[in-house]
Amino acid sequence: GMATPEKATITLDAVQMLDPHRLKPDSIEMERIITVLDETIAKLELSSLIPRIIDSLDRFADVLGPEITNSLIKHQKLSNEMEHLLASSEEGDTMRAEEQWGCLCLLEQRVKSSVRNVLRLLRVNPSLCQALKYEAWVRKSPAEAFIKAFGEFRNFMLERLLTSPMEEKEKTQFMEAISLQIKKNTEAITALQAELAAAIQTRKEEILKKDNAVKDLKTSMQDLNKDFKAGIQQIKQEGEKQQKEKLQASQARCARLQQDIQQLGAQLNALVLEHRASELALRKRKCRVEMEIVNWIQKYDADMGEKQAEYEEVHAAYAEEKVELSLLMEKHAVLLQEYSQIEEERRICQNKEEEALKELNTMTLAATRIQAFWRGYLVRSLFKSKRKKKKGKSK
């Protein structure tokens, strides 16, 4: 139906009361609070863009500049260190839990400081922030839901700050008026439901009248059935006559079929006897096969028992030999160490002998040369003396 003047007034009041932008902040404190919330939203948006900027750092490097790029690279390293530390703390033992927790707290402070540093560098250039938002917000961010919720919280705070105590009281009275209107509407709905029930009852009474008329029609139909019974009786008699004729033909057919059944029964009995004889032979064969299988199983069990005993004996001998082998290996290690010491001593003795032999050879060679020189000297001396004697005689 059309809205009444009262309803139109309530709707207008609701629009005026629930509009959060109908007033402007009238104090510096309100403006400061809203400014802080807006700046927080801007920082949240920039913080959510940092991972995507890092993923596409090659593409944004020219736009960002060296200082911001280096800060982002340092932030990425800190993030990787934190992820590695968290993963190792989940898989590590409980002995290093305190040490890991201390490292994690320190690393968390460094990450927070790195984020603040990156945000400070980015917010210096508003046009750069706008360009990065346009480039990176093409895909949805995982933090978009949180940022949206924070924006709703900012609007809620603005509405609360814009609402004075008097307006709050008016809003409460407005909600009470709406509740009263809902109550009135509920009472109207109840009255309409009662009217609907009365209409349904009237409809049921009309249907009952129609049912009575249907009963009358059924009575008239029964009278018509009586009139048709005579014709039906005649048709029935003719049908019985045809039934007798078909019955006689059916009996003759049944006699023929009975004779066929007897012949097939005799053939069946012959086949049953033949199959029973073959079944008996198969049963005997099955019994023989089962006895053979039992014998084979018993023989297999006996053989496996013998094999198991033999295996246990071999295993025991193997264990003893293994113990002896370990002892021999220990003795071999000791002997090997002694042998290496003896070899080292032999090598030292051999080196000494070689040096002595070399020195002896040197001395022998020197003595031989000295002797040869001495013999030469003696021969030359003797030869000189002989020459002097010959010259004396000639004179």
TrEMBL record:
Sections of the chain in a coiled coil: 232-274, 325-359
Keyword list, A-Z: Cell projection, Cilium, Coiled coil, Cytoplasm, Cytoskeleton, Flagellum
Primary subcellular site in the record, as a coarse category: cytoplasm
Compartment(s): Cytoplasm, Cytoskeleton, Flagellum axoneme
Pfam family membership, one: IQ
Source superkingdom: Eukaryota
Subunit structure: Component of the nexin-dynein regulatory complex (N-DRC). Interacts with CFAP52.
Functional description taken from the UniProt entry: Component of the nexin-dynein regulatory complex (N-DRC), a key regulator of ciliary/flagellar motility which maintains the alignment and integrity of the distal axoneme and regulates microtubule sliding in motile axonemes.
Family named by the database record: Belongs to the DRC10 family.
Stated name of the protein: Dynein regulatory complex protein 10
Organism (species): Sula dactylatra
Gene: Iqcd
